Amino acid sequence: MLRSLVGSEMCIRDRPRMDAEPGLQHPIGISQPETADLSIGHGASQPTDEPTGIPGVGEAVVLRPTTEEFRNVLEYLKSAPVLEAGKQTGIVKLIPPEGWTPPESPTARLDSTVRLETRKQEVHKLTECQDWKSADFFANADEYRAKANEFKRRYFGDVDCSNVERIEKEYWRAVAGEAGQVTVHYAADLDNAIAPYHSVSGQDDATLAQSWSLRAIAQLPGSFLQHLPQHISGVSQPWTYLGMLFSTFCWHNEDLWFPSINYLHQGDPKVWYGIPGEHAPIVPKVIEEEKTKAQSRMTGSTSLTVTQVFGLHNLVHPTAMLQGGASVYSAVQQAGQFIVTFPAAYHAGFSTGWNCAEAVNFAHPSWLPTGRKFEAVRRGKAACLSIDELIIRTADWFHTRRLTHQVKAIVGPCEESVGTFYESLSLLEQELLDCLQPELVRMSQRLQAELQNLKTLWSNTERSSVSVPVSLMSLSQRRALVNVFACIQCDRLCFLALCKCECAASHLDKRRGSVEDMYNSDLSKTQPYRCLHCAINTTTCHCDPSQKTVYLRASASEIEDTLKKGALWLTRRQSEEGVFKKQKT
Questions:
Q1: How high is the pLDDT of residue 410?
Q2: pTM of the model
Q3: What is the three-class DSSP state of 290?
Q4: What's the CA gap between 3 and 374, in Å, rounded?
Q5: Which of 57, 298, 436, 579 is 20 to 30 Å apart from 130, CA to CA?
Q6: CA distances from 525 to 246, 384, 476, 495, 496 (A)
Q7: Range 302-337 burial, b when 16+ CB lie within 10 A, else e
Q8: Sign of the C-alpha dihedral computed for residues 483, 485, 488 and 494 taken in this order
Protein backbone atom coordinates (compact mmCIF):
# COMPACT_ATOMS: atom_id res chain seq x y z
CA MET A 1 0.00 0.00 0.00
CA LEU A 2 2.85 2.39 0.72
CA ARG A 3 4.13 1.99 -2.82
CA SER A 4 0.67 2.45 -4.30
CA LEU A 5 0.60 5.96 -2.85
CA VAL A 6 3.88 7.09 -4.39
CA GLY A 7 4.18 5.24 -7.70
CA SER A 8 7.41 4.66 -9.56
CA GLU A 9 8.23 8.29 -10.38
CA MET A 10 8.63 11.03 -7.85
CA CYS A 11 6.94 14.39 -8.16
CA ILE A 12 9.88 16.78 -8.25
CA ARG A 13 10.61 20.26 -9.51
CA ASP A 14 13.83 21.85 -10.66
CA ARG A 15 15.74 23.49 -7.86
CA PRO A 16 15.80 27.28 -8.32
CA ARG A 17 18.93 28.50 -10.08
CA MET A 18 20.62 31.85 -9.75
CA ASP A 19 18.94 32.99 -12.94
CA ALA A 20 15.28 32.99 -13.82
CA GLU A 21 15.92 30.51 -16.63
CA PRO A 22 17.84 27.24 -16.28
CA GLY A 23 21.39 27.40 -17.57
CA LEU A 24 21.92 25.93 -21.02
CA GLN A 25 25.16 24.84 -22.57
CA HIS A 26 25.42 25.26 -26.34
CA PRO A 27 27.80 23.36 -28.61
CA ILE A 28 30.40 25.42 -30.44
CA GLY A 29 29.13 26.34 -33.89
CA ILE A 30 25.64 27.40 -32.80
CA SER A 31 25.15 31.13 -33.17
CA GLN A 32 25.30 32.77 -29.75
CA PRO A 33 26.34 36.16 -28.32
CA GLU A 34 29.99 37.10 -28.49
CA THR A 35 32.37 36.20 -25.67
CA ALA A 36 31.35 37.79 -22.38
CA ASP A 37 32.57 41.26 -21.49
CA LEU A 38 34.50 42.07 -18.31
CA SER A 39 35.07 45.46 -16.70
CA ILE A 40 37.60 46.31 -13.98
CA GLY A 41 36.32 49.84 -13.32
CA HIS A 42 38.99 51.95 -11.61
CA GLY A 43 40.79 48.87 -10.36
CA ALA A 44 42.14 48.35 -6.85
CA SER A 45 42.82 51.20 -4.46
CA GLN A 46 46.26 51.76 -2.98
CA PRO A 47 46.96 50.01 0.33
CA THR A 48 46.33 51.99 3.53
CA ASP A 49 46.81 51.41 7.23
CA GLU A 50 43.06 51.14 7.80
CA PRO A 51 42.00 47.92 9.58
CA THR A 52 40.69 45.08 7.43
CA GLY A 53 37.85 42.72 8.23
CA ILE A 54 34.28 43.67 9.16
CA PRO A 55 33.75 44.74 12.78
CA GLY A 56 31.30 42.51 14.62
CA VAL A 57 31.60 39.57 12.22
CA GLY A 58 32.89 36.53 14.10
CA GLU A 59 34.92 33.61 12.84
CA ALA A 60 32.97 30.50 11.89
CA VAL A 61 33.85 27.27 13.68
CA VAL A 62 36.74 25.37 12.08
CA LEU A 63 36.82 21.60 12.61
CA ARG A 64 39.75 19.28 11.94
CA PRO A 65 38.41 15.72 12.07
CA THR A 66 40.77 12.84 12.69
CA THR A 67 41.30 10.10 10.12
CA GLU A 68 38.97 7.86 12.11
CA GLU A 69 36.22 10.52 12.33
CA PHE A 70 36.59 11.12 8.60
CA ARG A 71 35.80 7.53 7.63
CA ASN A 72 32.08 8.12 7.11
CA VAL A 73 30.82 11.43 5.77
CA LEU A 74 27.21 11.18 7.04
CA GLU A 75 28.28 9.74 10.38
CA TYR A 76 30.56 12.71 10.92
CA LEU A 77 28.15 15.37 9.64
CA LYS A 78 25.43 14.26 12.06
CA SER A 79 27.79 13.96 15.04
CA ALA A 80 27.11 16.14 18.08
CA PRO A 81 30.22 18.39 17.74
CA VAL A 82 29.38 19.20 14.11
CA LEU A 83 25.68 19.87 14.79
CA GLU A 84 26.52 22.06 17.76
CA ALA A 85 29.05 24.03 15.72
CA GLY A 86 26.50 24.52 12.93
CA LYS A 87 23.88 25.70 15.39
CA GLN A 88 26.36 28.22 16.74
CA THR A 89 27.72 29.81 13.54
CA GLY A 90 25.47 28.60 10.70
CA ILE A 91 28.45 27.62 8.56
CA VAL A 92 31.40 25.42 9.52
CA LYS A 93 34.75 24.90 7.81
CA LEU A 94 36.08 21.33 7.68
CA ILE A 95 39.77 20.67 7.08
CA PRO A 96 40.35 17.05 6.00
CA PRO A 97 43.03 15.01 7.78
CA GLU A 98 46.47 14.45 6.31
CA GLY A 99 46.61 11.58 3.85
CA TRP A 100 43.01 11.89 2.62
CA THR A 101 42.66 11.53 -1.15
CA PRO A 102 40.34 14.22 -2.53
CA PRO A 103 37.79 13.41 -5.25
CA GLU A 104 38.45 14.25 -8.89
CA SER A 105 37.95 17.89 -9.84
CA PRO A 106 35.12 18.69 -12.27
CA THR A 107 37.67 20.48 -14.47
CA ALA A 108 38.93 17.03 -15.46
CA ARG A 109 35.44 16.14 -16.68
CA LEU A 110 34.41 19.37 -18.39
CA ASP A 111 33.69 19.04 -22.09
CA SER A 112 36.07 21.42 -23.91
CA THR A 113 33.80 21.43 -26.98
CA VAL A 114 30.89 22.99 -25.13
CA ARG A 115 30.41 26.69 -24.60
CA LEU A 116 30.29 27.78 -20.99
CA GLU A 117 27.30 29.85 -19.96
CA THR A 118 27.85 32.37 -17.18
CA ARG A 119 25.82 34.86 -15.16
CA LYS A 120 26.85 38.44 -15.75
CA GLN A 121 27.19 40.25 -12.42
CA GLU A 122 27.62 44.02 -12.15
CA VAL A 123 29.37 44.15 -8.79
CA HIS A 124 28.70 47.86 -8.32
CA LYS A 125 24.95 47.15 -8.54
CA LEU A 126 24.72 44.01 -6.40
CA THR A 127 23.14 45.81 -3.44
CA GLU A 128 20.39 47.03 -5.74
CA CYS A 129 19.22 43.40 -5.59
CA GLN A 130 18.42 43.22 -9.29
CA ASP A 131 18.23 40.00 -11.27
CA TRP A 132 21.40 38.95 -13.07
CA LYS A 133 21.87 40.15 -16.61
CA SER A 134 21.15 37.76 -19.46
CA ALA A 135 23.65 34.95 -19.84
CA ASP A 136 26.90 35.38 -21.71
CA PHE A 137 29.19 32.70 -23.07
CA PHE A 138 32.83 31.73 -23.07
CA ALA A 139 34.21 29.35 -25.70
CA ASN A 140 34.83 26.78 -22.97
CA ALA A 141 35.95 26.45 -19.36
CA ASP A 142 39.61 26.94 -20.32
CA GLU A 143 38.88 30.34 -21.84
CA TYR A 144 36.89 31.31 -18.75
CA ARG A 145 39.84 30.40 -16.53
CA ALA A 146 42.29 32.38 -18.66
CA LYS A 147 40.02 35.44 -18.74
CA ALA A 148 39.42 35.19 -14.98
CA ASN A 149 43.15 35.14 -14.24
CA GLU A 150 43.75 38.02 -16.63
CA PHE A 151 40.94 40.03 -15.01
CA LYS A 152 42.46 39.65 -11.55
CA ARG A 153 45.88 40.73 -12.79
CA ARG A 154 44.41 43.78 -14.50
CA TYR A 155 42.24 44.73 -11.53
CA PHE A 156 45.02 44.73 -8.97
CA GLY A 157 47.88 45.82 -11.22
CA ASP A 158 50.90 46.44 -9.00
CA VAL A 159 48.84 46.21 -5.79
CA ASP A 160 49.50 43.10 -3.70
CA CYS A 161 46.51 40.75 -3.92
CA SER A 162 47.84 37.81 -1.92
CA ASN A 163 46.04 38.80 1.30
CA VAL A 164 42.40 37.61 1.50
CA GLU A 165 41.41 40.33 3.96
CA ARG A 166 42.79 42.88 1.54
CA ILE A 167 40.68 41.39 -1.26
CA GLU A 168 37.62 41.38 1.02
CA LYS A 169 38.06 45.10 1.60
CA GLU A 170 38.35 45.67 -2.16
CA TYR A 171 35.24 43.57 -2.76
CA TRP A 172 33.02 45.68 -0.52
CA ARG A 173 34.58 48.82 -1.98
CA ALA A 174 33.56 47.58 -5.45
CA VAL A 175 30.08 46.64 -4.20
CA ALA A 176 29.68 50.18 -2.84
CA GLY A 177 30.48 51.58 -6.31
CA GLU A 178 33.75 53.16 -5.20
CA ALA A 179 35.73 51.24 -7.86
CA GLY A 180 33.52 52.33 -10.75
CA GLN A 181 31.77 49.86 -13.01
CA VAL A 182 33.03 46.38 -12.18
CA THR A 183 31.56 43.49 -14.20
CA VAL A 184 32.38 39.83 -13.62
CA HIS A 185 30.96 36.47 -14.62
CA TYR A 186 29.97 33.47 -12.55
CA ALA A 187 29.56 30.00 -14.05
CA ALA A 188 27.12 28.71 -11.47
CA ASP A 189 24.72 25.77 -11.22
CA LEU A 190 26.49 23.64 -13.85
CA ASP A 191 24.92 20.19 -13.83
CA ASN A 192 25.97 16.72 -14.87
CA ALA A 193 25.39 17.50 -18.55
CA ILE A 194 28.48 19.71 -18.78
CA ALA A 195 30.62 17.94 -16.16
CA PRO A 196 29.52 14.27 -16.35
CA TYR A 197 30.44 11.97 -13.47
CA HIS A 198 32.18 8.65 -13.73
CA SER A 199 30.01 5.79 -12.50
CA VAL A 200 30.30 4.80 -8.83
CA SER A 201 28.48 1.51 -9.34
CA GLY A 202 30.28 -1.43 -7.82
CA GLN A 203 31.72 0.58 -4.95
CA ASP A 204 30.44 -0.45 -1.52
CA ASP A 205 28.87 1.99 0.92
CA ALA A 206 31.94 2.11 3.17
CA THR A 207 34.17 3.12 0.25
CA LEU A 208 31.75 5.80 -0.90
CA ALA A 209 31.30 7.16 2.62
CA GLN A 210 35.06 7.40 3.12
CA SER A 211 35.61 9.09 -0.25
CA TRP A 212 33.59 12.18 0.73
CA SER A 213 32.62 12.42 -2.92
CA LEU A 214 29.67 14.80 -3.16
CA ARG A 215 28.32 12.61 -5.95
CA ALA A 216 27.84 9.75 -3.47
CA ILE A 217 26.41 11.47 -0.39
CA ALA A 218 22.75 11.17 -1.44
CA GLN A 219 23.15 7.43 -2.06
CA LEU A 220 24.52 6.56 1.37
CA PRO A 221 22.52 4.65 4.02
CA GLY A 222 20.92 6.94 6.58
CA SER A 223 20.09 9.70 4.10
CA PHE A 224 16.51 10.67 3.27
CA LEU A 225 17.68 11.57 -0.24
CA GLN A 226 18.78 7.97 -0.80
CA HIS A 227 15.12 7.15 -1.39
CA LEU A 228 14.53 9.50 -4.31
CA PRO A 229 13.68 7.44 -7.42
CA GLN A 230 15.67 9.91 -9.53
CA HIS A 231 18.23 12.58 -8.77
CA ILE A 232 17.30 16.24 -8.35
CA SER A 233 20.01 18.36 -9.92
CA GLY A 234 21.52 20.68 -7.32
CA VAL A 235 19.90 18.80 -4.42
CA SER A 236 20.85 15.13 -4.55
CA GLN A 237 23.26 15.55 -7.45
CA PRO A 238 25.99 18.21 -7.14
CA TRP A 239 26.22 21.38 -9.11
CA THR A 240 29.61 22.68 -10.25
CA TYR A 241 30.65 26.30 -9.76
CA LEU A 242 33.44 28.12 -11.63
CA GLY A 243 34.16 31.48 -10.09
CA MET A 244 36.44 34.47 -10.63
CA LEU A 245 37.43 37.53 -8.64
CA PHE A 246 34.30 39.05 -7.01
CA SER A 247 31.85 36.51 -8.49
CA THR A 248 29.12 36.42 -5.86
CA PHE A 249 26.51 34.18 -4.31
CA CYS A 250 24.00 36.38 -2.49
CA TRP A 251 22.14 35.76 0.77
CA HIS A 252 20.02 32.62 0.68
CA ASN A 253 19.28 29.45 2.57
CA GLU A 254 18.73 26.07 0.96
CA ASP A 255 15.50 24.75 -0.48
CA LEU A 256 13.51 22.92 2.24
CA TRP A 257 16.22 24.23 4.58
CA PHE A 258 18.37 21.23 3.73
CA PRO A 259 21.95 21.33 5.03
CA SER A 260 24.57 21.51 2.28
CA ILE A 261 28.23 20.75 1.76
CA ASN A 262 30.59 22.65 -0.56
CA TYR A 263 34.05 21.43 -1.58
CA LEU A 264 36.60 23.77 -3.17
CA HIS A 265 38.57 21.56 -5.55
CA GLN A 266 41.12 24.05 -6.78
CA GLY A 267 41.90 27.71 -7.31
CA ASP A 268 41.77 30.82 -5.18
CA PRO A 269 39.86 30.96 -1.87
CA LYS A 270 36.22 31.75 -1.33
CA VAL A 271 35.03 34.11 1.42
CA TRP A 272 31.85 32.96 3.16
CA TYR A 273 29.42 34.72 5.49
CA GLY A 274 26.93 32.72 7.54
CA ILE A 275 23.97 33.48 9.79
CA PRO A 276 22.77 30.76 12.22
CA GLY A 277 19.43 29.14 11.53
CA GLU A 278 17.88 30.52 14.72
CA HIS A 279 18.39 34.03 13.31
CA ALA A 280 16.93 33.13 9.89
CA PRO A 281 13.65 35.09 10.46
CA ILE A 282 15.69 38.30 10.80
CA VAL A 283 17.28 38.06 7.36
CA PRO A 284 14.17 38.60 5.15
CA LYS A 285 13.26 41.63 7.25
CA VAL A 286 16.70 43.18 6.76
CA ILE A 287 16.69 42.33 3.06
CA GLU A 288 13.23 43.85 2.64
CA GLU A 289 14.29 47.02 4.46
CA GLU A 290 17.52 47.43 2.50
CA LYS A 291 15.97 46.46 -0.81
CA THR A 292 13.10 48.88 -0.27
CA LYS A 293 15.61 51.69 0.25
CA ALA A 294 17.48 50.73 -2.92
CA GLN A 295 14.31 50.40 -4.99
CA SER A 296 13.00 53.71 -3.69
CA ARG A 297 16.23 55.44 -4.80
CA MET A 298 16.07 53.86 -8.27
CA THR A 299 12.36 53.93 -9.10
CA GLY A 300 10.59 55.70 -6.29
CA SER A 301 8.61 52.54 -5.61
CA THR A 302 8.61 50.85 -2.20
CA SER A 303 6.57 47.81 -3.22
CA LEU A 304 8.34 44.46 -2.90
CA THR A 305 7.15 40.96 -3.68
CA VAL A 306 7.63 37.87 -1.53
CA THR A 307 9.53 36.28 -4.40
CA GLN A 308 11.94 39.24 -4.51
CA VAL A 309 12.59 39.11 -0.76
CA PHE A 310 13.33 35.37 -0.87
CA GLY A 311 15.11 35.46 -4.23
CA LEU A 312 18.73 34.64 -5.02
CA HIS A 313 19.81 38.17 -5.95
CA ASN A 314 19.84 39.88 -2.57
CA LEU A 315 23.19 41.16 -1.35
CA VAL A 316 23.24 43.14 1.87
CA HIS A 317 26.38 44.17 3.73
CA PRO A 318 27.00 42.00 6.82
CA THR A 319 26.95 45.17 8.92
CA ALA A 320 23.27 45.67 8.04
CA MET A 321 22.56 42.13 9.20
CA LEU A 322 24.36 42.82 12.47
CA GLN A 323 22.41 46.03 12.97
CA GLY A 324 19.20 44.09 12.34
CA GLY A 325 20.03 41.75 15.23
CA ALA A 326 21.50 38.75 13.38
CA SER A 327 24.82 37.17 14.28
CA VAL A 328 27.19 36.95 11.30
CA TYR A 329 30.23 34.70 10.97
CA SER A 330 32.80 34.40 8.21
CA ALA A 331 35.15 31.75 6.87
CA VAL A 332 37.88 31.66 4.25
CA GLN A 333 37.67 28.42 2.29
CA GLN A 334 40.96 27.33 0.78
CA ALA A 335 41.29 24.70 -1.95
CA GLY A 336 40.94 21.25 -0.43
CA GLN A 337 38.53 22.37 2.30
CA PHE A 338 34.80 21.89 2.90
CA ILE A 339 32.18 24.39 4.00
CA VAL A 340 29.02 22.93 5.55
CA THR A 341 25.86 25.02 5.84
CA PHE A 342 23.18 23.99 8.32
CA PRO A 343 19.37 23.88 8.24
CA ALA A 344 17.79 27.32 7.71
CA ALA A 345 21.20 29.07 7.96
CA TYR A 346 21.62 31.93 5.51
CA HIS A 347 24.92 32.23 3.67
CA ALA A 348 26.56 34.48 1.09
CA GLY A 349 30.04 35.09 -0.23
CA PHE A 350 32.39 35.68 -3.13
CA SER A 351 35.47 34.28 -4.86
CA THR A 352 38.89 35.91 -4.59
CA GLY A 353 39.97 34.64 -8.02
CA TRP A 354 39.42 31.74 -10.38
CA ASN A 355 38.28 28.59 -8.61
CA CYS A 356 36.28 25.41 -9.06
CA ALA A 357 33.87 24.04 -6.46
CA GLU A 358 31.00 21.59 -6.08
CA ALA A 359 28.02 21.66 -3.74
CA VAL A 360 25.16 19.34 -2.87
CA ASN A 361 22.45 18.96 -0.23
CA PHE A 362 22.07 16.13 2.23
CA ALA A 363 19.39 15.16 4.74
CA HIS A 364 19.88 13.08 7.85
CA PRO A 365 17.20 12.67 10.57
CA SER A 366 18.14 15.84 12.47
CA TRP A 367 17.02 17.90 9.44
CA LEU A 368 13.37 16.76 9.47
CA PRO A 369 11.94 19.03 12.24
CA THR A 370 13.49 22.09 10.57
CA GLY A 371 12.28 20.96 7.16
CA ARG A 372 8.73 20.85 8.47
CA LYS A 373 9.09 24.44 9.73
CA PHE A 374 10.11 25.46 6.19
CA GLU A 375 6.65 24.50 4.95
CA ALA A 376 5.04 27.12 7.18
CA VAL A 377 7.02 30.00 5.63
CA ARG A 378 5.42 31.50 2.54
CA ARG A 379 8.23 32.21 0.09
CA GLY A 380 6.25 32.90 -3.08
CA LYS A 381 7.29 29.65 -4.77
CA ALA A 382 6.86 25.95 -4.10
CA ALA A 383 9.70 23.75 -2.88
CA CYS A 384 11.52 21.22 -5.09
CA LEU A 385 9.81 18.20 -3.52
CA SER A 386 7.15 17.17 -1.03
CA ILE A 387 8.31 16.17 2.45
CA ASP A 388 5.19 13.99 2.80
CA GLU A 389 6.22 12.03 -0.27
CA LEU A 390 9.82 11.76 0.91
CA ILE A 391 8.62 10.36 4.25
CA ILE A 392 6.33 7.80 2.62
CA ARG A 393 9.00 6.70 0.15
CA THR A 394 11.50 6.24 2.97
CA ALA A 395 8.97 4.20 4.99
CA ASP A 396 8.24 2.10 1.92
CA TRP A 397 11.95 1.35 1.51
CA PHE A 398 12.21 0.17 5.11
CA HIS A 399 9.04 -1.89 4.67
CA THR A 400 10.56 -3.67 1.67
CA ARG A 401 13.79 -4.26 3.57
CA ARG A 402 11.84 -5.74 6.46
CA LEU A 403 9.96 -8.19 4.21
CA THR A 404 13.25 -9.27 2.64
CA HIS A 405 14.69 -9.81 6.11
CA GLN A 406 11.73 -11.95 7.16
CA VAL A 407 12.08 -14.14 4.07
CA LYS A 408 15.78 -14.55 4.73
CA ALA A 409 15.05 -15.55 8.33
CA ILE A 410 12.69 -18.28 7.17
CA VAL A 411 14.48 -19.73 4.14
CA GLY A 412 18.11 -18.89 4.90
CA PRO A 413 20.87 -21.45 5.59
CA CYS A 414 20.21 -23.77 8.54
CA GLU A 415 23.34 -22.67 10.38
CA GLU A 416 22.62 -18.94 10.02
CA SER A 417 21.09 -17.10 12.95
CA VAL A 418 19.25 -13.98 11.81
CA GLY A 419 18.67 -11.25 14.39
CA THR A 420 15.87 -8.71 14.38
CA PHE A 421 15.28 -6.49 11.40
CA TYR A 422 16.34 -3.51 13.50
CA GLU A 423 19.64 -5.19 14.32
CA SER A 424 20.28 -5.79 10.63
CA LEU A 425 20.38 -2.05 9.96
CA SER A 426 23.37 0.24 10.28
CA LEU A 427 23.34 2.82 13.07
CA LEU A 428 22.56 5.57 10.55
CA GLU A 429 19.64 3.57 9.17
CA GLN A 430 18.35 2.90 12.68
CA GLU A 431 18.30 6.63 13.42
CA LEU A 432 16.44 7.29 10.18
CA LEU A 433 13.93 4.57 11.04
CA ASP A 434 13.41 5.95 14.54
CA CYS A 435 12.40 9.38 13.28
CA LEU A 436 9.81 8.01 10.83
CA GLN A 437 7.34 6.55 13.32
CA PRO A 438 6.26 9.80 15.04
CA GLU A 439 6.25 11.60 11.69
CA LEU A 440 3.86 9.08 10.13
CA VAL A 441 1.59 9.42 13.16
CA ARG A 442 1.59 13.22 12.81
CA MET A 443 0.80 12.95 9.08
CA SER A 444 -2.14 10.65 9.84
CA GLN A 445 -3.51 12.92 12.56
CA ARG A 446 -3.17 16.02 10.39
CA LEU A 447 -4.95 14.44 7.43
CA GLN A 448 -7.75 13.06 9.63
CA ALA A 449 -8.32 16.48 11.20
CA GLU A 450 -8.41 18.26 7.82
CA LEU A 451 -10.80 15.73 6.29
CA GLN A 452 -13.03 15.89 9.37
CA ASN A 453 -13.21 19.68 9.11
CA LEU A 454 -14.26 19.34 5.47
CA LYS A 455 -17.23 17.27 6.61
CA THR A 456 -18.65 20.07 8.75
CA LEU A 457 -18.38 23.22 6.61
CA TRP A 458 -21.32 25.61 6.71
CA SER A 459 -23.26 25.84 3.47
CA ASN A 460 -25.20 29.01 2.80
CA THR A 461 -27.02 27.16 0.06
CA GLU A 462 -28.17 24.30 2.29
CA ARG A 463 -28.32 26.46 5.44
CA SER A 464 -26.59 23.68 7.34
CA SER A 465 -23.24 21.98 7.78
CA VAL A 466 -22.39 19.73 4.83
CA SER A 467 -19.55 17.49 3.74
CA VAL A 468 -17.31 18.39 0.81
CA PRO A 469 -17.41 15.71 -1.92
CA VAL A 470 -14.31 13.50 -2.06
CA SER A 471 -12.97 11.80 -5.18
CA LEU A 472 -9.85 9.87 -6.12
CA MET A 473 -7.20 11.63 -8.16
CA SER A 474 -7.27 10.71 -11.81
CA LEU A 475 -4.29 8.96 -13.36
CA SER A 476 -3.37 12.18 -15.19
CA GLN A 477 -3.50 14.12 -11.93
CA ARG A 478 -1.23 11.61 -10.21
CA ARG A 479 1.25 11.68 -13.07
CA ALA A 480 1.29 15.43 -13.45
CA LEU A 481 4.29 17.48 -12.43
CA VAL A 482 4.33 18.49 -8.80
CA ASN A 483 4.26 22.21 -9.52
CA VAL A 484 0.74 21.64 -10.88
CA PHE A 485 -0.20 20.75 -7.31
CA ALA A 486 1.33 23.70 -5.49
CA CYS A 487 -1.40 25.38 -3.46
CA ILE A 488 -2.38 28.62 -5.17
CA GLN A 489 -2.84 30.24 -1.76
CA CYS A 490 0.26 29.27 0.25
CA ASP A 491 2.46 27.53 -2.39
CA ARG A 492 2.69 24.38 -0.27
CA LEU A 493 2.99 21.19 -2.31
CA CYS A 494 -0.11 18.99 -2.31
CA PHE A 495 0.83 15.32 -2.37
CA LEU A 496 -1.73 13.22 -0.51
CA ALA A 497 -4.70 15.50 -1.11
CA LEU A 498 -5.79 18.68 -2.86
CA CYS A 499 -8.98 20.68 -3.29
CA LYS A 500 -10.54 22.32 -6.33
CA CYS A 501 -13.19 25.00 -6.00
CA GLU A 502 -15.00 27.68 -7.98
CA CYS A 503 -12.87 30.60 -6.84
CA ALA A 504 -9.49 28.88 -7.33
CA ALA A 505 -9.20 29.70 -11.03
CA SER A 506 -9.97 33.40 -10.52
CA HIS A 507 -7.52 33.61 -7.62
CA LEU A 508 -4.82 32.03 -9.78
CA ASP A 509 -5.51 34.49 -12.60
CA LYS A 510 -5.30 37.34 -10.10
CA ARG A 511 -1.91 36.14 -8.88
CA ARG A 512 -0.61 35.76 -12.43
CA GLY A 513 -1.44 39.39 -13.14
CA SER A 514 -0.29 40.84 -9.81
CA VAL A 515 2.85 42.84 -9.13
CA GLU A 516 3.42 40.62 -6.09
CA ASP A 517 3.93 37.55 -8.30
CA MET A 518 5.38 39.14 -11.43
CA TYR A 519 8.66 37.19 -10.93
CA ASN A 520 6.98 33.88 -10.07
CA SER A 521 7.48 31.75 -13.19
CA ASP A 522 5.85 28.72 -11.50
CA LEU A 523 2.41 30.28 -11.81
CA SER A 524 2.41 29.81 -15.58
CA LYS A 525 2.20 26.03 -15.00
CA THR A 526 0.24 25.91 -11.75
CA GLN A 527 -3.30 24.52 -11.87
CA PRO A 528 -6.20 25.88 -9.72
CA TYR A 529 -5.92 23.76 -6.59
CA ARG A 530 -5.64 24.53 -2.89
CA CYS A 531 -4.18 22.44 -0.10
CA LEU A 532 -6.72 21.15 2.43
CA HIS A 533 -5.58 23.66 5.06
CA CYS A 534 -6.36 26.63 2.80
CA ALA A 535 -9.56 25.01 1.51
CA ILE A 536 -10.87 24.87 5.08
CA ASN A 537 -9.96 28.49 5.78
CA THR A 538 -13.03 30.58 4.99
CA THR A 539 -10.97 33.79 4.92
CA THR A 540 -9.04 32.52 1.87
CA CYS A 541 -11.79 30.52 0.17
CA HIS A 542 -15.35 31.82 0.14
CA CYS A 543 -16.82 29.04 -1.99
CA ASP A 544 -19.79 27.09 -0.78
CA PRO A 545 -18.87 23.50 0.15
CA SER A 546 -21.03 22.31 -2.74
CA GLN A 547 -18.59 24.08 -5.08
CA LYS A 548 -15.55 22.24 -3.70
CA THR A 549 -14.14 18.81 -4.49
CA VAL A 550 -11.35 17.08 -2.60
CA TYR A 551 -9.06 14.75 -4.55
CA LEU A 552 -7.10 12.05 -2.70
CA ARG A 553 -4.29 9.83 -3.98
CA ALA A 554 -6.18 6.87 -2.49
CA SER A 555 -9.33 6.55 -0.42
CA ALA A 556 -9.22 8.24 2.97
CA SER A 557 -9.36 4.88 4.74
CA GLU A 558 -6.54 3.48 2.60
CA ILE A 559 -4.29 6.46 3.27
CA GLU A 560 -5.03 6.39 6.99
CA ASP A 561 -4.47 2.64 7.08
CA THR A 562 -1.17 3.02 5.25
CA LEU A 563 0.14 5.69 7.60
CA LYS A 564 -1.03 3.84 10.70
CA LYS A 565 0.38 0.51 9.57
CA GLY A 566 3.64 2.15 8.66
CA ALA A 567 3.87 3.55 12.17
CA LEU A 568 2.81 0.25 13.75
CA TRP A 569 5.39 -1.95 12.13
CA LEU A 570 8.04 0.58 13.08
CA THR A 571 7.05 0.49 16.74
CA ARG A 572 6.79 -3.33 16.78
CA ARG A 573 10.14 -3.89 15.09
CA GLN A 574 11.72 -5.62 18.11
CA SER A 575 8.92 -7.47 19.86
CA GLU A 576 7.23 -9.12 16.89
CA GLU A 577 10.37 -10.51 15.22
CA GLY A 578 12.59 -12.09 17.86
CA VAL A 579 15.47 -14.22 16.59
CA PHE A 580 14.77 -16.56 13.70
CA LYS A 581 16.64 -19.77 12.98
CA LYS A 582 15.67 -22.31 10.34
CA GLN A 583 15.17 -25.78 11.78
CA LYS A 584 16.59 -28.90 10.11
CA THR A 585 13.98 -31.14 8.54
A1: 75
A2: 0.86
A3: helix
A4: 26
A5: 57
A6: 36, 14, 15, 17, 20
A7: eebbbbbbbbbbbbbbbebbbebebbbbbbbbebeb
A8: negative
